[in-house]
Design goal:
This protein has 201 residues and is mainly β. Helices cover 12% and strands 38% of the residues. It is built from four helices and ten strands, in the order ββαββββααβββαβ. The strands form two sheets. The protein has a five-stranded mixed barrel. Residues 195-201 have low confidence and may be disordered.
């Protein structure tokens, strides 16, 4: 299969989606086993390559109370920490973490924590070197409330698109066109426990 191509898909099965948080707004999941993917020949109606469920920041508090569907957000990256590792509770593992502050058109802030591969794949040096503001879509986020602040974090399904061309792009580029809108790097938290430092129960 090639990205951007259109295929007829046959021989697959379905089952009820029992995930706590759904990626798609549907009760059924498709599973591929011995599935056939046949390229569609000729002219077909265009199908969007991306489909986002972008929520306004004002809609996030309700999600924090009873979220069932993972959400997507779009905004301008205000600041970022370098990637660092933290111990995972009740396991003998460390996990990569990176924290972003993202702004919307009202210049409201949302803290987004990137975990694992999503944190490792963010090219912070390239972002810092940019002469303009960095716009981003982050998908499949879980929303929580911590110390009365709404925040979001990535999941295993999340992906991040830097400067995607969507219909909100022009409006954001106009708003975030000042020199002060470049991404700022902030230090990662200095007091972090290693696995050896975690007290035993």
């Amino acid at each position: 299969m090639q990205q951007g191509e259109i295929y007829d898909i046959s021989i697959f099965y379905t089952r009820k989606d029992q995930s706590k948080y759904k990626v798609a707004n549907h009760d059924v999941q498709l599973y591929y086993e011995s599935t056939k993917f046949e390229p569609v020949e000729g002219i077909v109606p265009p199908i969007p390559e991306y489909s986002f469920r972008l929520l306004d920041f004002s809609e996030l508090p309700a999600q924090a109370q009873q979220q069932t569907l993972l959400i997507d957000v779009y905004g301008c990256i205000k600041s970022a920490t370098p990637e660092y590792e933290v111990p995972i509770k009740d396991t003998n593992r460390m996990k990569s973490k990176l924290e972003l502050i993202v702004k919307n058109l009202r210049r409201e802030d949302l803290k987004i924590t990137l975990w694992g591969d999503t944190a490792r794949k963010l090219n912070l040096q390239s972002i810092e070197a940019s002469c303009s503001a960095i716009l981003v879509v982050i998908t499949s986020l879980r929303v929580t409330k911590f110390r009365q602040q709404i925040q979001a974090s990535t999941t295993n399904h999340s992906c991040m698109l830097i400067n995607p061309q969507i219909h909100q792009t022009q409006e954001y580029q106009t708003e975030f066109s000042k020199p002060g809108d470049k991404v700022k790097t902030v230090p990662a938290p200095s007091k972090r426990l290693t696995l050896e430092q975690i007290p035993l129960p």
